[in-house]
Amino acid sequence: MMVSTKGRYALTVMVELARKGENGYVSLSDIAESENLSMKYLESIIAILNKGGLLKSLRGKNGGYMLARDPKDYTINEILLLTEGTLAPVNCIMQEGVQCEKAATCSTLPLWAGLDKVIENYLKGITLEDIIKGNRKKMLGDYCESCEPAK
Amino acid sequence: MMVSTKGRYALTVMVELARKGENGYVSLSDIAESENLSMKYLESIIAILNKGGLLKSLRGKNGGYMLARDPKDYTINEILLLTEGTLAPVNCIMQEGVQCEKAATCSTLPLWAGLDKVIENYLKGITLEDIIKGNRKKMLGDYCESCEPAK
DNA sequence: ACATATTCCTACCGAGAGAGTAGGATTTGT
DNA sequence: ACAAATCCTACTCTCTCGGTAGGAATATGT
Fold it and tell me: Which residues of A touch B97 (CB under 8 A)?
């Protein structure tokens, strides 16, 4: 498994906020309640999103969080990368290039690099808007049984 | 990170054995030495490959391991799946379908399912032979700088 | 002014997985 | 008989994941 609860919850939060739209700030307790997640744990995750500039926040009464931009301007890659730190499928591939002394002679490295690219490419191609609009075709591609068959 | 050392070493072993070809059995100590890995740890990994039927083994003097089939008949997916148990990028997607009580209403599930498929598809498309032949084009696709540009 | 609702910040903790180690039993070729 | 190999079981250490706890700072309604 590559994506932990941190990244999954983060995405869930972003989706939730995207759904609430521009109707003011949404409080942490609201989000935790509607998603049925621990408020304290969610707090630490939202902190990452907030510090990363993905959210706007307001303290005090009637405060809360809201998206900093339009849902279509967030890629899933961006959200997960921020919360997870890396999405590399293996240790020998780090963000910002390869970090292994055997890299030059490693015959499996191209495989890992290719896998990494495939993942990154997929996640960069999907936005928050795709999720809230339920764009199954884009997410599931040819594997979507309820979509029109691509030809 | 989705693939641990177990899966990576397993793949390395398979590549090593594929290179040695049909020239008899290769001993564990030979493999460990040429890859500069702990023999004891490698032993536990090879045991998985062996029990999974990917290898043939011979005990006693001059014994060792060799591939059970032709390199082109192993997909990377098969090798990693056996050693890692699962390659799902998230917990809510298990092998053999979805396992989450919120699945019916989860708006992020199609994303994870799509990601899972993309990964599986990539790994099923590459064989052990591709690795030992250094088929960079297949592994890296459009990201391969040393390949002919695809058009 | 004050109570209240909220974000913000630091620290802590338990369980489980990852990454190996250790020691020996068993099998086979010479 | 001996050496070289696989096979098997159990153990250990460390780190990350997933979460908890307690309080400080800040804004708002009355």
Answer: none
